[in-house]
């Protein structure tokens, strides 16, 4: 049986992913890791095992990894630099058999989003250089672990109608504003395809709305 550990489960991005798992992958077991369970929807607090801790601390993650086969992490923010190292260290300590990790990173860390004057996306490199450096390290950290991974670098995650998907690898650095948006549910679907079908194997990629479905 597949068991997915969702880190950063209180985030809207992870919430869309959890909802997709519930509707489209009902045979998959779900475990949630959060700092503050009170921020979760009440039904999730009773439906799933909840693990509480700091994602930057490997020992906090160890109890959550029991029987886990897949990891989805939407842990974000400028104070989360150690979270990938902590996760990989916890996996190594527990010898958990993880088939794939999906990591939600930040659009703009390669200067790929042509964000003009707006104070986000590629401006992240100048506003938060330490955070950007940590995000740029992720592919090397995951590659060294030997675990299959996908890093998604979304632009602006939005609600709205689902679409097809446009993806770009890090060497493509001309993403215009028309490709900033990605629908939350479409994005959750891409994450599930990466996690369970090994799509986007060992890639870091941007994700944007494509043609209407
Ligand atoms: N929203 C967008 O348009 C967008 C665009 C590009 C990338 N992203 C990325 O997508 C991910 C999710 O973002 P979001 O906008 O949906 O929501 P968010 O509020 O930015 O999500 C951050 C998540 O990380 C958790 N977290 C932060 N530090 C933690 C720690 N030390 N230990 C445990 N958990 C910790 C937060 O928990 P708390 O609830 O306790 O704070 C929250 O669940 C982030 O990585 C973000 O950078 C989002």
UniProtKB/TrEMBL annotation:
It comes from the Bacteria. Residues 8-197 form the NAD(P)-binding domain. SUPFAM superfamilies: NAD(P)-binding Rossmann-fold domains (SSF51735). PANTHER family: FLAVIN REDUCTASE-RELATED, UPF0659 PROTEIN YMR090W. This is SDR family oxidoreductase.
């Amino acid at each position: 049986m597949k068991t997915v550990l969702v880190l950063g489960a209180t985030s809207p991005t992870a919430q869309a992913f959890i909802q997709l798992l519930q509707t489209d992958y009902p045979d998959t077991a779900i475990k949630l890791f959060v700092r503050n369970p009170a921020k979760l929807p009440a039904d999730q607090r009773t439906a799933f095992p909840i693990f509480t801790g700091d994602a930057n601390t490997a020992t906090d993650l160890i109890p959550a990894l029991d029987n886990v086969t897949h990891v989805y992490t939407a842990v974000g923010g400028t104070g989360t630099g150690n979270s990938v190292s902590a996760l990989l260290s916890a996996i190594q300590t527990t010898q958990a058999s993880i088939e794939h990790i999906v990591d939600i990173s930040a659009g703009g860390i390669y200067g790929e989003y042509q964000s003009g004057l707006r104070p986000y996306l590629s401006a992240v490199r100048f506003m938060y250089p330490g955070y950007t450096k940590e995000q740029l390290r992720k592919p090397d950290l995951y590659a060294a672990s030997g675990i299959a991974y996908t890093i998604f670098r979304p632009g602006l995650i939005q609600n709205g109608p689902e679409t097809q998907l446009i993806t770009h690898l890090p060497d493509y650095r001309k993403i215009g504003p028309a490709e900033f948006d990605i629908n939350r549910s479409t994005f959750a679907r891409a994450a599930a395809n990466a996690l369970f079908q090994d799509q986007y194997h060992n890639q870091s990629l941007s994700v944007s709305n494509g043609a209407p479905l």
